[in-house]
Amino acid sequence: MNTISKIITWKRNILASMAVLLVLIVLSFYGVYTNKFYFLKPDNYIFPILSMVHFLYLYVVWFKISEEELPDPKMRNIEYVLYAIMIVYVFKIYDSMTVLNSITEYGEHVIPATFKPVATVTLVLYSILPILTIYTFWLRKRYVGIYNFENYNDNLNIWQ
Fold first, then answer.
1. Where, by residue number, does the polypeptide cross the bilayer (predicted)?
2. 34 to each of 43, 47, 54, 71, 94, how far by Cα in Å?
């Protein structure tokens, strides 16, 4: 893991996570079967709303690492919510694989030429997102510290 952390620094990881999230937010509104964007479907807003928690966590990790602060209960709670959101990410990987494999079912229908490239990019990005997220958890543990709040007040030095 130390070799990986030299190549993919914490800043690169956070920026890559943000880029992947932004592209996936745009792709969540895109219909691969019709080659159109659908902004009026409520289902398309689930991922962007959940990704707001991910953006918040990335901001908190960036702030804590750059300011060399200790972890706090709010950060821990955001991370725990992100653990639950990881289940949604795994479901989106499954959903993307199902869509990509459905090309054989709809072979006799007119499918846009962009179907396979866009569905493949979506699957790859959804597969990269949990890896980047788990790596962010590891970076948080390495640079910010573990969640140990039993002696939290003893470790605070308000005069620094």
1. 12-33, 45-65, 77-94, 114-138
2. 16, 20, 29, 46, 20
